[in-house]
Amino acid sequence: MNEARIRRIVIVGGGTAGWMAAALLARAFGTQIDIRLIESDAIGIVGVGEATIPQIRLVNQFLGLDEDEVLKATQGTFKLGIQFNDWRRVGDSYLHAFGDIGLPLGLLAFQHYWLRSRAAGGSALPAVAGSTGAADVHGRTSAAGGSALPTVAGSAGAADLWAYSLNAAAAMANRFARIDQVGSSPISGTKHAYHLDATLYGKYLRQHSDARTVHRIEGRIVDVRLRAEDGFIESVVLESGEAIAGDLFIDCSGFRGLLIEGALETGYENWQHWLPCDRALAVPSARVEPMRPYTQASARPAGWQWRIPLQHRNGNGHVYCSSFMSDDEAASLLLANLDGEALDAPRPLRFTAGMRRHVWSKNCVALGLAAGFMEPLESTSIHLVQSGVSRLLALFPDRHCDPVLSAEYNRQTRFEYERIRDFLILHYRATERSDTPFWRHCAQIGMPESLLRKIELFRSSGQIVRDGEELFTEGSWLQVMLGQGIEPARHHPLADAITAAQLDEFLANIRTLIGRAVESMPAHARFVAEHCKAAASG
Fold it and tell me: What dihedral angle (degrees, nearest 10) is formed by the CA atoms of 453, 456, 457, 458?
């Protein structure tokens, strides 16, 4: 037995980050390790993230949690993607849908066949039959009852792309079902995430954490003691005077980074020159119909506004740049653009986009807002906690915390953050808007070389290369680049290997199968009511 093995982990801070870390570590190690989680009811939780991406389902599966029970407890609904309104130009709208777009054929990705068809003037696509009361791309209900697919204004034929996405077609019809495969075809089924109340999710994880392993301590930390010989954290001291010692410390203390920055002074890398928004206001509003199975992100004069449908309310927020809009203007704009009555006053949040220079330093690992901040444009906040814990489990140290392990952890973490950063920059930088000073500023933002390389490759050849284990797939990059108006000059020559008739048949078959699958789905609200309706609202 390794006598230097970790015996006690101290987690500083609760909320989603702290309790997710506690639950995952307890599930992985069982009673081998004692976990102490310190939180204070007197300290508020930021809780800006209520939308997730599909990887969160892996957390629930690993913890043995039933999906329907999680959604009941968190007032949750299902999420098939994110709708972006007014980002390229005012009036434009497109969807970043989870899951696959079309099917590859031979060695070639689907978009090259679609690009060939579009260049040849492919015909307009029929509506998805039977999708009565469908919402159009702006979330309005079609009076004719047909299913409107997302359109990219100004790009002739570009709308057709989303007809090859099951998630997109279902989202725009406000329908949902758990489908593993479309019939007997090779087309994959729905790929979903959740809209949930992040505070309730943290409480749910707390309730399901093994009390034999995870011990909650109520209190405020007033001091952090470091070992004189190596600068490692020895203990944290509570207001009561009690010292809590540990072998490994997890900093989930939010923006202040009580351990990673306050005690260890690792430094922060500021990315505001690429991502200029630095403030947000969050407010709940009354639930309105329809219960859409997608998040909405609508561009505003100096930022953007989110709308997240939950069972008991809607979550709303306005992310903006204080250099171009005052706090009072931002609050007024947010309240003026709610679908339902505001249920509280807007809650302010200040932030700086970026990350710690070292997320793991000595015997401390930072998670969540203590590690860095990416605005919730692509709903990555909870995922970054999840991936941080997963990475820690893969590189788990002993009490010596070998710097080789921490260096690799930091390298992988930086890679993940930087690739997410690039994806977010794309939304701001690839714009034709010039109607406000903020958007004129965004159009001039410099780009990291890693993002510029990806854009130029796609623009010249329609090719998308996914870098290593970066979070966003080729399909994600495809939708956002086309949605933001980045057009390829050509398709791959291999797409010309089949005849025009074969190409038409290939594309038509995919559209038909997706249309039939969507037609068979119930309304999203009905599915929620039948499978995971919360016991009470509030």
Answer: 130
DSSP SS3 for 493: helix
Please state the pTM of the whole predicted model: 0.91
533 counts as catalytic: no
Q: What whole-number distance in Å separates Cα of residue 172 and Cα of residue 150?
A: 7
331-356 tens-digit pLDDT:
999 999 999 999 999 999 999 999 99
How do the domains of the chain map onto residue ranges? 8-50+198-270+353-401, 79-195+451-525, 279-350
CB proximity list for 358: less than 8 A, separation 6 or greater: 260, 266, 267, 406, 410
Alpha-carbon gap, residue 141 to 360, rounded angstroms: 49
Q: Give the pLDDT score at 41.
A: 80
Total Cβ atoms within 10 A of residue 167:
30
> What's the confidence (pLDDT) of residue 428?
97
What sign has the CA pseudo-torsion 262, 267, 273, 275? negative
**Which residues touch 353 (CB under 8 Å, ≥6 apart)?**
270, 271, 272, 274, 275, 277, 278, 373, 374, 375, 421
Q: Distance between CA atoms of 298 and 90, rounded to whole angstroms? A: 10
* CATH number at 8-50+198-270+353-401: 3.50.50.60
Locate 301 and state its tokens.
């004069």
Q: How far apart are CA 436 and CA 88, in angstroms?
A: 13
The closest of 5, 21, 4 to 13, measured between CA atoms, is: 21
Handedness of CA 386, 389, 394, 395 (dihedral sign): positive
pLDDT of residue 239: 95
Residues of the chain with pLDDT under 50: 47-49, 123-159, 538
The 10s digit of each residue's pLDDT in 153-194 is: 333 333 389 999 999 999 999 999 999 999 899 999 999 999
Which residue is catalytic, options 72, 79, 362, 454? 79
How far apart, in whole angstroms, are the C-alpha atoms of residue 245 and residue 235?
4
CA–CA dist 497, 106 (Å, integer): 10
